[in-house]
Amino acid sequence: MAYVITDTCTKDEHCIEACPVACIHPTKDEADFATVPQLYVHPTECVDCGACITVCPTNSIMALEEVPAALQPFIEKNAAYFN
């Protein structure tokens, strides 16, 4: 896993549009978009390009190694979404 999305995510989809490998879900077209509280980065499909970080207006996306202790539970939440 290269990046983690945290709870300040507003699901504005800028990151989805910027991602060259479509590894951020759910999109508006997916059934659970309305019910999930945030978007998630697929832990094995992400190619570590960083395109999502620069377009996130809420700074909700961060590199795995930069996730502060208080936000560490979001590492597992991102991975769990895809399991």
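[next item in queue]
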Amino acid sequence: SRTVDPSVARRLTSGSFSDDDTMSCVDEVSFPRGMARQYMFVFQDVDDRELDASRFKLEWGEFEDYAVNYDVMLGQGAYGEVYKATHKPTDSECVVKTIKVDKESVLKLKQEIMMLERVKGGPCIVEYMGLVRNPDDDTKLIVFEFVNNPNYKESFRDMTDLDARWYLFRVLKGLDYAHSLGVIHRDIKGGNICYDPITKKLRIIDWGFGVHYVPSRPFTSWPGTRPYKAPELFLHYSYYDYSVDVWAFACLMGSLIFRRTLFRSKDNRHQMELIARALGTASYERYLAKYARPPFKLVAKKYRHLGEPHMGRGGFQVYVSSKTPLANFEALDIINKVLVWDHEKRPTASELIQHAYFDPVRHRDVNSSQ
């Protein structure tokens, strides 16, 4: 069922939750809303069957249209490798992502293509060009536009202040577009942002963990890359929303402006402890109390105690030094507003786009080919 309590819907659409409330830490224990602050009803009038990846029909292109250069591997991951290729009819560069046979899942492939088709054409979203099958070994390949993409850590080191603002602004534009279509990426990180420092072309890639957001439908998986995962994912909250992408964005921003990973941990428990040192245990205790009741209960038993009780927020100013010239007041303001325990208190991607930090780059055309 997608039925929403009418009183809750009225509060959401009337804007009774003030900006001050949504942009601050948890100051009091209140009943959770259990849904996103924005784009919550994208699929309100859509049949559930249209969102079912198992029903999605894969369309195959012609493998002969592509010349794959297996000598030029551009990347490697758990599910396959990425190679440079040429689209022969247009003589244009592209890339193919192979799918390892031992990792192959028809449902997972359908899910990824379904997400790529949904967000196709959006600003700063990688262009999906098709799906082909190599007849020699039946290897499946997903074809994308080519983006020259040096290691993001190297790109971060060379960025000017304006480069950083433009890079982050465009990531937010891509996220807001996906969110407006009801899609959560669920794995935003530096490695999933293709960026050419010469042309400034930027694309959000790897939509394999992408998923549709329906408020009343509980999630049963909590994927992502540990240093970028929001706390509610570790706590197996079933009704998480777009705010997990916004949290990951702030972690990405932190790695850029501080030139270090904000939360570099050895395991999930350690990750939550590092988050608690920065965000405080006092607000964590209120957060747990807020979600201690069904149907939005957190699975928090093994993360009940994360440090000294009633500890205040430490913040991220400790990372600022003469070696972090990009860490200005406005950048810190964004990170401090996003990285809070309660996902209902985080600003949305569209709200962050309006932040003063992006004023110097707002006039640029984010919808250009770059």
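[queue empty]
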